[in-house]
Amino acid sequence: MKFRLTAKTERDYNVMLPSLQARVDKQLALLLQNLRHPSLQAKKYDEARDLWQGRVTRDYRFYFQIDGDTYIILAITKHPK
Fold first, then answer.
1. CATH number of the domain located at residue range(s) 2-78 in this protein
2. Quick check: pTM over 0.90?
């Protein structure tokens, strides 16, 4: 498996604090190893749009779709509580 960031996600990533970027990097590496890794807490978020959610930190989530052997990272955002 591999992952790809959308242009918007890449722009958002580039303006994040380095500490948050490091957490995103770590979680995306775990995603490549194992979708079911416990710290990701990955789950199907929207069945109709085939949208998944994964955890970056307690306050941040990333949203993605799976296209063949590629995880397409659509957004990395603050978790709405």
1. 3.30.2310.20
2. yes
